[in-house]
Amino acid sequence: MSEHRKFKAVLVACQDGRLGKTNAEWLQKLREGGEVDTILVAGGIQELVFWYDGNLILRFIAWFLGLFGIYVSSVIRGLEVSVRLHGIREIYFQQHEDCGAVGGSSAFDGESEELEYHRDLMVRAEQIVLRRFSDPGLVLLVRFKYARKLHGESWTIIGLNTQ
Ligand SMILES: [Zn+2]
Question: At 95, phi and psi to the nearest 5?
């Protein structure tokens, strides 16, 4: 691995191709400060919450397979590389409106309910990540981003952190 570029952040986002152009521009800006790892999976951090904050059986399976170095969640596998190998301390979660992996916008009773669903996922995912990487002296910064659909094919990325 070459040493001349430092790693800045890791982005966990949905693989949805409609976001490709918006995210490419957004990432280009972010990359001015260093490399940005990207973990793209359907539904973004949804699978992380599903495995690690779901029912006890799922959590047990995730923990048990973890003993053998098997990751049930590619989000965790990716974060392990970013945090432990690349030394990244800044994590971006990006969820988006009308995500097919959670049933699309029609699965919700309005825009604000949809946004709250994703904010809740991000709060839960942040807890999972902070528990997993709780080594002394390791301070992670987790930023919540949400891509909202504008008219046509364009999206706008807003921040959802409360503090
Ligand atoms: Zn999606």
Answer: -105, 170
